[in-house]
Amino acid sequence: MTDDDLIGFALSLPETVESSHFGNRDFRVRGKIYLTLPSPEFCVVKLTPDQQQMLLATVPEHVLAVPGGWGLKGWTRLFHHILDDETICTLVRQAWRNVAPKTMTLPED
Fold first, then answer.
1. Other C-beta atoms lying within 10 Å of the C-beta of residue 34
2. Are residues 38 and 46 in contact, defined by beta-carbon separation less than 8 angstroms?
3. What sign for the dihedral angle of Cα 89, 94, 97, 99?
């Protein structure tokens, strides 16, 4: 998935706004970050630690925990240029769900 496709998809999720975090593009729902673009090589999504561990076990060649404490909290690097589009969309939706208020739902929920 290209950066432009990823950005377009993120902005299609309810109440998503683009902002900046430490000079990097990020995407938020009601002020909470769920996706950042810190590098041309990968994006970072907010997963739970359990979701991250499952992902690391199933596609370790396409993902990496963010180093340090952020990674322990579930922040995960996705190499979105090599992962298939369906998987990226599923993971970005999950990251959105992880930070969105529980009263909000996605259209396919």
1. 24
2. no
3. negative
pLDDT digits (tens, 9 = 90+) for 11-46: 999 999 999 988 899 999 999 999 999 999 999 999
- Domains in the chain, CATH or no CATH each: 3-99 (3.90.1150.30)
> Radius of gyration of the chain from Cα atoms?
13
Paired strand residues for 15: none
For residue 105 the two structure tokens come to: 């739902």
Among 74, 96, 48, smallest CA distance to 106 is for 96
CA distance 4 to 72: 29
Q: Is 72 helix (H, G, I), strand (E, B) or coil?
A: helix
